[in-house]
């Protein structure tokens, strides 16, 4: 009876381990976009977060700028020193994480350097990693109930390419009933801004309008409602917008498709007009909306119909009508046409904030509104980012690869004093790690999407010959790979590790360490891609299928020790191996008291071999 109880407890522990750590709030919400033929979606851990932790920051403009998030996904300021539009003043104390949401709060500030009788203190958050097409970006968020913009958007580092996922006004007359499905192409000097201004770009959502606008809908008397807003950036001249998992608008070359009252409308611009600076914009009608031609309509979205509308158009790009980003002279998209707008090709930061925009300064909220808890918070439940990857990587159709930015480390250390970073590596935010010497290491908290053997690819640069990069957990090195001389510290090249790594689904802490030469390498990022099922190498450890069914590791997962149930009388030699086949421990135990010490074992998956039988062990 005791063994049955222990078996039940062990099963429960294993079940809890596999489910408690691997679940995100969005796990049961399907990704509505198509990853493309032969592909599946793969979660980008360095950009995704369900904010199931707490964080707060010091007060004051420019104060306490810092990274946060389980993988250092975020930076609590804008992506350059600019401190906000209109009467906005970014204040880091207006950013927090409450255990379930990222919270952006606005408040009163007596600042008047930008004009007005008072300013708006607001939080702003920028991702430390960037997105590039093809990619799906989605957030579940709740707009503030105030006459300011609540924003979740993508922006290039040079501020010339912007895709707005949400830019909604919780308390501005008329605008509060719509979401502006938009993007911007900029010329910085003289400042010129193209964005779609066709009537369909202002998109009504019936339940929002019925509630009295975005602010009242989301506030909902304190029982907040959330809306899922997403964009599928397929290519330089093609992306899709989703609201609550429903496709509502598509931008493609020279045409747009928008779902209005259940009917898809396929439209293109009528003509263009030069502005005072000589840049071309779609011609607007007397009501301020761009004039368009409706090519056709349909009950269901048809990509072929949208392509036909683009081909039938007057040739004016809906992505970048004035060619602010240049022309596609080298046919980057491979469509055989070189005389057309280049579209959006740059990496983009994710930015989340509230702001007082210049055109709204005459409607700046009052001090009481800014300080009202019923009005002044935008909440973000989660952000998820996925890249399409090939589905033939083994093990089924789930997400099967991740990319980790080198600067997103959780800790680091070392033994070599290089005079700049005494013992460890230098974090070069946005570009990786450098000043890496022999004996230096960096630890990374990662989430593995599913059990399997993972191929490791480093994006590494080094002018040295003979340096090595090691992969493992804690002091356990799973494999060591020689880094080739690439000629400089900044010529990053992909490098596959000499061996694969086995992982179980869930959270792990992996370590990269340097060796071989005193001065080693710089690292931009590394990627793990599932290429097969879990297997062991380098040493034969018996077959799990031939395991004695009477043997059981309890508890499993374990922390300090684990017992082996089912052994008879006598003494047994027990070996513990890493999943790379490296022996990490050998102990002799008594069958009457069969406890194994797990001291000095880092968290991860191991194989325990006893009496020619092999069992899996999870160490927490």
Radius of gyration, CA atoms, in whole angstroms = 28 Å
Oligomer: single chain
Note the beta-strand portion. Answer: 35-45%
Count of domain modules: 3
The major sheet is characterized as: 14 strands, mixed
Supply the number of helical segments: 5
- Kindly provide the name of the CATH class of the largest domain: Mainly Beta
Based on helices, strands and strand pairing, what is the structural class? mainly beta
Q: Please state the average pLDDT score.
A: 86
Please tag this protein with its features:
single chain; 620 residues; mainly beta; Immunoglobulin-like; Jelly Rolls; 3 domains; 14-stranded mixed sheet; 8-stranded antiparallel sheet; 7% helix; disordered N terminus
Write the layout of secondary structure elements.
Blueprint: H1 2-20, E1 39-43, E2 54-56, E3 67-68, E4 74-75, E5 88-90, E6 95-98, E7 102-109, E8 119-122, E9 124-131, E10 135-142, E11 149-155, E12 161-169, E13 178-180, E14 182-188, E15 191-194, E16 202-204, H2 206-211, H3 214-219, E17 227-235, E18 238-243, E19 246-252, E20 255-260, E21 263-269, E22 272-274, E23 280-282, E24 292-298, H4 303-312, E25 348-355, H5 367-370, E26 377-390, E27 401-405, E28 411-413, E29 426-428, E30 432-434, E31 441-448, E32 452-461, E33 468-473, E34 476-482, E35 493-496, E36 501-503, E37 506-515, E38 522-532, E39 552-554, E40 561-565, E41 571-578, E42 583-590, E43 595-597, E44 604-610, E45 613-619
Parallel strand pairs: 5-8
Antiparallel strand pairs: 1-26, 2-6, 3-4, 4-9, 6-7, 7-8, 7-26, 9-25, 10-17, 10-26, 11-12, 11-25, 12-14, 13-16, 14-15, 17-18, 18-19, 19-20, 20-21, 21-24, 22-23, 27-38, 28-31, 29-30, 31-37, 32-35, 32-36, 32-38, 33-34, 33-37, 39-40, 40-43, 41-42, 41-44, 44-45
